[in-house]
Amino acid sequence: MSAPGYAEAPRGRRPTDGDRFKEGLAGPVRGVLQELGQIATFSGQAMAELRGVFRYTSEILRQVGILVTGSLVVVCLMQFVMGMQCATEANYVLRGYGATAYSGVFTAYCGIREMGPYMWGYIISAKVGCGLVAELGSMRINNEFDAMSSLGINPMRYVVATRLMACIIAFPLIYMVAMAFHNLANQLIIINQIGEVSLGGWEGVHYLFLRPLDFFYSEIKIMVMGIAIVLVAMYYGYNARGGPVGVGTATARSMILNLILVHVIGSTFTMVFWGLNPSMPVGG
Amino acid sequence: MSSVVQPPTLPGTPDQPVAPPPGKKQSTGIAAILEEIAAVLLMTFRAARMSVVPPFSWKGEFIEQTVLVIKRCFFPVVISTTFFGFGAPGLQGGNLVNVFGTVDRLGAFFVMASVREFAPWINGMVVAGVGGTAICADLGARKVRQELDALAVLGMDAVREIVVPRFLALGLVTALMNLIAIVFGVLGGWFAAVVVFGDTSAGYLATFSSNFTLPDLLGSIIKTSLFGFIIAAVCCYKGMTVKGGAEGVGRAVNQAVVMSFVGIWAFNFVFTTTLLAAFPETGNLH
User: Fold this and answer.
1) CB contact under 8 A, A270 and B99
2) B141, A245: Cβ pair inside 8 Å?
3) pLDDT category of residue B59 using cuts at 50, 70 and 90
4) Residue numbers in A near B216 (CB within 8 A)
5) What percentage of chain B carries pLDDT values higher than 70?
6) Is residue B208 part of a domain?
7) What mean pLDDT do residues B44-49 have?
8) Which residues of B touch A73 (CB under 8 A)?
9) Contact B253/A251, CB-based, under 8 Å?
10) Max CA-CA distance within chain B?
C-alpha cells in the first residue's frame, strides 16, 4: 500500500526525485502547448464563423463605432509620442555620423516600417485587447453566452465573429490616421524643436524614402498583429472563469501572450519584407 | 435607534451600485481625469513617505512581490527584447549603416537603440502589461471582496501594507530587468550583424563597448526605475478604487494598463530629450 499523498504515483511506487524533476520540466511545456492549441482551435472557429457574420451587419457597425470612438484618440496620441521619439533619436544618432541632413531616412524607416507597427501592437493590446477580455469575461461570468445559446443565437458568431470583423474593417483606417500624426510629430520635432535641418531638406529625404509599397507592407504587418491580438484577447475573455478575480487574471494572461506575439510577428515580418533587400532608393 | 444594520454582502456577488455620498458631485470629462491624476499623485506621495517612516511592516510582502514580478516578467522580457533587437534596430538599422558602408557601426547604433531606447521601454511595457495588470487584478479582487475594508477595520493602513511593497518592488524589478533586457537586445542585434549582414563579432562588440558610456547606463537604469514607480502607482490606485463586480475589475485593469502605457511613453520622451540635451557627448560616435 502506497503512503498517503502518493496515491497517484505511477505503478504504485513513490515518485522518485527524477520523476518529480521530469514532471517539473515537462509540466509547464505541456501547459503552454495545450493553451496554444486551444487558442488555435478558437481562432479557427472564429474565422469559420466569419462566413455568416454579415447577418449581423448592424452589430458589426456598432462595434466599428465603439472602436473608432473609444480607441482612435489614444492610438493617435501614442503614435504622436512615438513620432517625437523617432525624430529625436534620428537627429541625435545621425549627428554622430555627421549626416543630420539624412534624418529623413531614419524617420521614414523608424515610423512606417518598425515603430509604427510596434506601437500599434502595444496600444491595441492594451486598449482593445484588454477591453475585449474584460467585456467578454464579464459576459461569461454573468452566463450571457449560455443565455444566447439557449435562445438559439450562436455566441461565437454573434459576439466573437462580429468583433473580429469590426476590427478587420476599422484597423487599417485607424492606422492610416494615426500614422498621419506620427509624421506630423516627426516634422514638429526635427524642424521646429531641434531645427538642424531645413524643412525642404527633411521633407525631400523623408518622403523619398517612404515608398507606397512600404506602407502596404506596414498595413499587412499591423493587420496580422491586430487580428492575432484580438483573437488571443477574445479567447481569454470567452473562457474566463472564477468570478471577478478570474476576469482580472484573464486580462493579465492575455497581455503576456500579446506582448510576446507583437514582438515575434513584428520582427518576422521585418525579416520577410526588408531583411535582405532594404529597397533603398540610394546606394550601390 | 437610527443605525440600520446592513445585510452583509456575500463574497463573489456583484455589489449593488453605490450612490456617491451626499454633497459630493460626480465630476465628468476633463475634471474627472484631472481628479484621477491628482488622486494617483497623492497616493504616490503618501506611499513615498510611508516607505521611509517606520514601522517597516511591509518587508515580507516586498520580497514576495519582487520574486513574483521577476518570475512573471523574465521570459516575456527575454523573448520580446531578443526579437525586437533582431528586427527593428538590427535589420533596419543594419540597412541604414550598410548604406554608409560601416556595418561594424551597428554596435554603436545599439548603444542608442538598446541601452537608451528599446530595452527600457520594452521592459516597461512588459512589467506594466504582465506585472501591473496582475497587481491591479489582485487588488481589484480584494476590493470587491471587501478585504480592504477589513484591513481598515483591523486598524491597518492599506497604503503601508499593500501599496508600499508593490511600489518599491516594481521600482527595483524594472531597473534589474532592464539589465537583462539590454543584454538580450544586444544579443538580438548580434544575430542581425553577424548572421545576416556577415560582419565580425569583434567589430560589433568593439564599437558597442567604445560607445557605451556611464551616463547612458545610469540614465537607462534611473529611467526604468521611474517607469516602475509610475506603473505601480497607476495600477495600485486603479485596483484599489474598483467599482462593481466582474465588469468593474476588468475595466479597471484595462484602464490601468492604458494609463501606464501613456505615462511610460510621455515620461520616456521627456527623459530622453533631457538626457540627450544634458549630455551631448552620448551622441558622439567613438
Assistant:
1) no
2) yes
3) confident
4) none
5) 89
6) yes
7) 87
8) none
9) yes
10) 88
Residue B280 included in any domain: no
Q: Does B34 touch chain A (CB under 8 A)?
A: no
* Helices (runs of H) and strands (runs of E) counted in chain A: 11, 0
Does any domain span residue B50? no
In the predicted model, what is the mean pLDDT of residues B110-120? 84
Q: How many domains does chain B have?
A: 1
Binned at pLDDT 50, 70 and 90, residue B26 comes out as low
Dist CA B79 CA B77 (whole Å): 6
Average pLDDT over residues A143-160: 92
Report the distance separating Cα A12 and Cα A141, nearest Å: 40
Does residue B172 form part of some domain?
A: yes
Cα angle B110, B115, B116; round to 5: 100
Q: Measured between CB atoms, does B284 come within 8 Å of chain A?
A: yes
Q: Which domain holds residue B232?
A: 58-273
Average pLDDT value over all residues in chain A: 87
ipTM (interface pTM): 0.84
B37 falls in which pLDDT band (50, 70, 90)?
confident
* Pick from A64-68, A149-153, B181-185, B249-253: least confident: B249-253
Nearest to A109 among B96, B98, B250 (CB): B96
How many Å lie between the alpha carbon of A36 and the closest alpha carbon of chain B? 16
What residues of chain A lie within 8 A of the CB of B251, using their CB?
A: 131, 134
CB contact under 8 A, B196 and A275: yes
Name every chain A residue with its beta carbon within 8 A of the beta carbon of B111: none
Whether residue A194 has pLDDT greater than 80: yes
Per the model's pLDDT, the better-predicted residue between B108 and A129 turns out to be A129
What is the phi-psi region of residue A152: left when phi exceeds 0, alpha when psi lies from -120 to 50, beta otherwise?
left
Q: Is residue B80 within 8 Å of residue B122, measured between CB atoms? A: yes
Best A115, A263, A269 member to test B by mutation, with max B CBs in 10 Å, is A263
For residue A236, count other CB atoms closer than 10 A to its CB: 28
Q: How confident is the model at residue A9 (pLDDT cuts 50, 70, 90)?
A: low
Cβ–Cβ gap B250/A243 under 8 Å: no
Q: How far is CA B181 from CA B43, B114, B123, B172, in A?
A: 30, 8, 7, 14
Q: Is the pLDDT of residue A2 over 60?
A: no
Using an 8 Å CB-CB cutoff, list chain B residues near A275.
91, 196
Task: State how far the alpha carbon of B91 is from the alpha carbons of A86, A269, A282, in Å.
Answer: 16, 11, 17
**Cell numbers found for residue B202:** 569583434
Cα(A140)–Cα(A241) distance, rounded to whole angstroms?
Answer: 7
